[in-house]
């Protein structure tokens, strides 16, 4: 008697079940990989945000460390919106001086902390023009000003305080200023000197306090405070 072996294949239902299981495993695997990719992207963005903030604060401190005073120029000025600093160049003495300015402005609908820097200044006239231009840049920047500004971090608000008379005070108020010295707001028309008048005495603060209200949605948000102290007092820390 001869036995007959019949080859049995997969039924249509079995094939559909197998294909469905493979599709399900593919979807689950893709979601897992997508989750890992998103997590890596999030960590990279967080790292970029922290590095950007660190670099910005380092530049802020470097600008103040390199601050200089010139006759009839205070070297540091805060008008409630823009902080202007007259500083040495980062290269040789032949590079001259530079004016840098910091301000907060809405860019593409989002608040940004911006830094502006002038070209090297080798004459008194160039210094005066750059000092005035730095203040105008915060309000109505020109195309050239836009090319000279750098976006740093997302920022909603910021404040500046001076350490004078052993206390922190608003630079635009008279609190904490030495006797006989009047705090002047350069943005106020009433503060502009008349022809022939002696300019008000400027007193450099012993320290500068920076208070930033960082925009939400970043790795670091909320309020951040950074103090800077003049080099001869606290090493510029």
Q: Main attributes?
A:
alpha+beta; elongated; 4 helices; 34% helix
Could you give a quick summary of the protein structure above?
With 237 residues, the protein is α+β, with helices and mostly antiparallel strands. The chain has one domain (45-192, 199-234). It has helices spanning 12-65, 124-139, 143-148, 231-234, and strands at 76-78, 82-88, 97-107, 110-117, 149-164, 167-169, 207-214, 222-229.
Fold and architecture overview:
- The chain is an alpha+beta fold and 237 residues long.
- The protein has one domain.
- The protein contains four helices and eight strands.
- The protein has helices spanning 12-65, 124-139, 143-148, 231-234, and strands at residues 76-78, 82-88, 97-107, 110-117, 149-164, 167-169, 207-214, 222-229.
- Strands 1, 2, 3, 4, 5, 6, 7 and 8 form an eight-stranded antiparallel sheet that branches.
- A hairpin with a 2-residue loop joins strand 3 (97-107) and strand 4 (110-117).
- It is elongated.
- The termini are far apart.
